[in-house]
Amino acid sequence: MSIEKKCQDLELIPLHILQQAEQITASGLTSQTRSNYAAGLLRWHQFPSLCVCQPQKCFSQGLSVLMAGSVLGSTIRSWLSGIRAWHILNRAPWPSNSEFITLAHRAANIKGSLHKRPLCNPITLQHLLVLHSALNFSTPFHCAIWAIA
Hints:
Largest sheet: none
Number of strands: 0
């Protein structure tokens, strides 16, 4: 799909300009975002080993596998965002109006909520007073501990 689009673009735009445009577009993602998105692409590339069909032909089933409930919904959204970003950068079609994707996002939130850690109690003034009394402020390390508390 994307190869066809690139061939069409090459008929209109010189190769060096297309390559420069791809580099500039890809640089719009921070290194942290690229790292998170790479996890989505990794999962997508692992998917064919679980499916006898071609990934392009069973996209919706692929989403079902991704949202199996083993990770948080936000993780799956990040994976899907990475796959979507790849499609955009490579000018490949993305089923943005797919109702299945919308339902997959909702299901990921529900199934992934099982993996959230319970909320911790907040730090109280009493905790800070106990910490303050235990620190030696002539030691730089203890001063740093107090500074971040």
